Amino acid sequence: MANDIELTRMDSPVDPSPRRDFHGQNGSKNMHYEPAHNDDEESDEEDLVMDEGSQALLGPHNTSSPALSERPKKPLTFPNVVQVKSIVFESAPTLLFTTLGLLFTGELLDHVSRWRAMREVDQLIMIIPVVLNLKGNLEMNLSARLGTAANVGELDDPPARRAIIIGNLALLQVQATVVSFVAAGVSLVLGLIVPRSETTVQEVLVVRRPLPHVPPAADHLRKSGFPTFIMVASTAMTAACLSSLLLGSFMCGLVVLCRRFGRDPDNIAPPIASCLGDLVTLILISLVSSVLIIVMHTPIPFTLAIIVVLSAISCGVFARRNPVVAPLLTQGWAPLFGAMVISSGTGIVLDLFVSRYDGFALLAVVISGLPGAAGAIFTSRLSTSLHAAAKAITPTATGTEASSSAVMLMLLLVTLPVEIIFLSVLSVLGWLHLPFVFVALSVVFFCIAVTCSLLLARILTNFLWARNLDPDMYALPIHSALMDLVGQLLLVLCFEIVSLFGGRVAVKPPAT
């Protein structure tokens, strides 16, 4: 029965050492898995989905597998020593690195916002958070797909590994070109409807980054029209495609190395993909825009944009002929742009609160970014477990099987020291001077944010799986955008509560 199916172990979906071959319906290797689904029993599967996130959400025709149907339901079990070491020693350094990377990205953004291109073309500042949001989601999706492929053994065979990696890199080029062009269009619209002011940049950038310093500029510095749009679009597409090539290759290599050395890429790849995606893309946008601003009124930006588009078309044709990634060309677009809308709306809604408190941007890095990274790890692990269970892969027994709730608790305990270390570093460096009451309350709200992130990851992954949507393509963008919103709302609430009870927090004077 479907209700007797238990989710494959969350701590290590499959044994990383053996090489396995899996065959599709036609007897050939199945590189792309579509979650099974039966419309006639949708309501039964939805009930199964929400059962503590501890059961695999498989269609009725998959439940006949002995590896699944004979697995008895077990109560909550906690990870043993080996499993705890795997989660702690793989996830904790990754999360700490991600947090420091996000902080460095914010400081870099503050620096490059003073460059000539950023000062003279407003749309370049406006395009940065949109491109970073979209590109970060693309890299996280890539890492999730490769993590699943590694854990179910699809990267063990060299020809299959080559097809998966090259196909995904070609797909990433197509996605990067499309989302960066859309981001350029969004920046053009914002440049036309939003008045020039420092608040403008705050509204756009508050969602994911520390706010950059924008020097006051006269209205005549605003660039508009077709040359500006071409320059911005060319900058965004060129930077996004170069970033996808560099970072995509790095992530593929990282996942392959994790598989080779017996590490779980689900614990390592998603947060690193998001963090490095932001950093590398920001650097490339800054460098490309600094070059193109000099030749903005020449045919060079337009020519560069045409070259990027032709390259993307070539990659699209190649991906279309690759059976591994061909079905993915039409998948996952809705959550990408839905996340962009959520993130844009979040910045506008929170602008009134953000402008009141000093230090909000620095704290937002940890209270939004760190819980989001933990949720990305859990989403990737859960998705891998669902795919492995659907393929009837039984992990090698190395101890008691940890339930998803136990893994959630472990991730919460792993992220808490990272939060404390981050706040301590900010205090020692003198970047923030906050009362003890605020620090204690912020830790409490941080734990709430991590809990919300993990619960959202489980609910969203199971919800998508029950509707025959691959979580590796759909879950992470929506999860990231919603956690940006939830995390910053909790931070606003923390500031407001401390102020209400007379705590000393740095309050900015209201704008006149």
TrEMBL record:
Residues 1-49 are annotated as: Disordered. InterPro entries: SLC41_membr_dom (IPR006667), SLC41_membr_dom_sf (IPR036739), SLC41A1-3 (IPR045349). It is a multi-pass membrane protein. Keywords: Ion transport, Magnesium, Membrane, Transmembrane, Transmembrane helix, Transport. The keyword Ion transport applies. It is found in: Membrane. Coiled coil: none annotated. It holds the Pfam family MgtE. Residues 39-49 have a biased composition (Acidic residues). GO terms for cellular component: plasma membrane. Residues 128-286, 366-494 form the SLC41A/MgtE integral membrane domain. The keyword Transmembrane helix applies. One of its GO terms (molecular function) is monoatomic cation transmembrane transporter activity. Belongs to the SLC41A transporter family. This is Solute carrier family 41 member 1. The lineage of its organism: Eukaryota, Fungi, Dikarya, Basidiomycota, Agaricomycotina.
